[in-house]
């Protein structure tokens, strides 16, 4: 069973990235996606070298954004691939079946394609506008999630779907009611002054039993 809360790291420098990741782990986050954009291979490798043992110390999953070769080299728990990154089935040939491969989706068809190619989970977004990612796909909103999750159910397609994009604490319950599995967040954890309380609140909502 995958954890339901994924922290996507932020920071313009190695030092800030490591600080933000350490703070999130120390506050109870147990799944980190290292997302360090527009850096040299050396910089990203150096950061990954430091993040991996930290995630091991906190018994947290560690996946790498975009960079399949880095995920392989550093022996991360997996990789998250976008719509313009290497294809899921190609990545699977490199990482094998024991590693986690996540894929970005904006439509039902994106998800269908990822499932066909052996993806382990879906990051479906964006929920709403966010400054964290530069080139956003069309905003889905709650109705977008509801429609896509209904189509997945109707077509008996079962894969963990994580909502992403501008998500706040108050969005969790309505998003969970659409049928998503979990959420991936960046800004609300990075910017929180009460990270431990926030992560506890997020996890309570994410793991609450839905009474049908
Ligand atoms: C869980 C999750 N979902 C979506 C994304 C977005 O990935 P991608 O489309 O590759 O965009 P960048 O993150 O590379 O800007 C993600 N990283 N994680
Ligand atoms: C990394 C990412 N991908 C998105 C997508 O829609 O594919 S939105 C996003 C940013 C998530 O960060 P925040 O929680 O700060 O909005
Ligand atoms: Mg990407």
TrEMBL record:
One Pfam family recorded for the sequence: TMP-TENI
Segments forming domain Thiamine phosphate synthase/TenI: 12-186
Required cofactor(s): Mg(2+)
Residues involved in Mg(2+) binding: 66, 85
Binding site for 2-[(2R,5Z)-2-carboxy-4-methylthiazol-5(2H)-ylidene]ethyl phosphate: 130-132, 166
The protein's annotated pathway: Cofactor biosynthesis; thiamine diphosphate biosynthesis; thiamine phosphate from 4-amino-2-methyl-5-diphosphomethylpyrimidine and 4-methyl-5-(2-phosphoethyl)-thiazole: step 1/1
GO terms for MF: magnesium ion binding; thiamine-phosphate diphosphorylase activity
UniProt remark on cofactor binding: Binds 1 Mg(2+) ion per subunit.
Reactions accelerated catalytically: 2-[(2R,5Z)-2-carboxy-4-methylthiazol-5(2H)-ylidene]ethyl phosphate + 4-amino-2-methyl-5-(diphosphooxymethyl)pyrimidine + 2 H(+) = thiamine phosphate + CO2 + diphosphate; 2-(2-carboxy-4-methylthiazol-5-yl)ethyl phosphate + 4-amino-2-methyl-5-(diphosphooxymethyl)pyrimidine + 2 H(+) = thiamine phosphate + CO2 + diphosphate; 4-methyl-5-(2-phosphooxyethyl)-thiazole + 4-amino-2-methyl-5-(diphosphooxymethyl)pyrimidine + H(+) = thiamine phosphate + diphosphate
One of the GO biological process terms: thiamine biosynthetic process
Keywords assigned by UniProt, alphabetized: Magnesium, Metal-binding, Thiamine biosynthesis, Transferase
GO cellular component term, pick one: cytoplasm
Binding site for 4-amino-2-methyl-5-(diphosphooxymethyl)pyrimidine: 33-37, 65, 104, 133
E.C. number: 2.5.1.3
Function: Condenses 4-methyl-5-(beta-hydroxyethyl)thiazole monophosphate (THZ-P) and 2-methyl-4-amino-5-hydroxymethyl pyrimidine pyrophosphate (HMP-PP) to form thiamine monophosphate (TMP).
NCBIfam families xref list: PRK00043.2-3 (NF000736), thiE (TIGR00693)
Entry's family note: Belongs to the thiamine-phosphate synthase family.
HAMAP family: TMP_synthase (MF_00097)
Record's protein name: Thiamine-phosphate synthase
Gene: thiE
């Amino acid at each position: 069973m995958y954890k339901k809360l994924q922290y996507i790291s932020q920071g313009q420098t190695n030092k800030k990235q490591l600080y933000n990741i350490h703070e999130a782990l120390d506050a109870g986050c147990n799944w980190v996606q290292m997302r360090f954009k527009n850096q040299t291979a050396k910089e990203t490798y150096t950061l990954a070298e430091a993040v991996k043992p930290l995630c091991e110390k906190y018994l947290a999953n560690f996946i790498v954004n975009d960079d399949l070769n880095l995920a392989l080299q550093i022996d991360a728990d997996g990789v998250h691939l976008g719509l313009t990154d290497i294809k899921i089935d190609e990545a699977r040939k490199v990482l094998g079946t024991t590693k986690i491969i996540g894929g970005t989706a904006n439509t039902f068809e994106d998800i269908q394609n990822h499932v066909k190619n052996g993806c382990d989970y879906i990051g479906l977004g964006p929920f709403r506008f966010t400054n964290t990612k530069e080139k956003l796909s069309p905003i889905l909103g709650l109705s977008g999630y509801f429609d896509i999750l209904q189509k997945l159910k109707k077509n008996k397609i079962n894969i963990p779907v994580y909502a992403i994009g501008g998500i706040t604490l108050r969005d969790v319950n309505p998003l969970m009611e659409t049928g998503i599995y979990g959420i991936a967040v960046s800004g609300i954890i990075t910017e929180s002054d009460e990270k431990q309380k926030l992560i506890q609140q997020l996890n309570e909502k994410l793991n609450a039993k839905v009474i049908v």
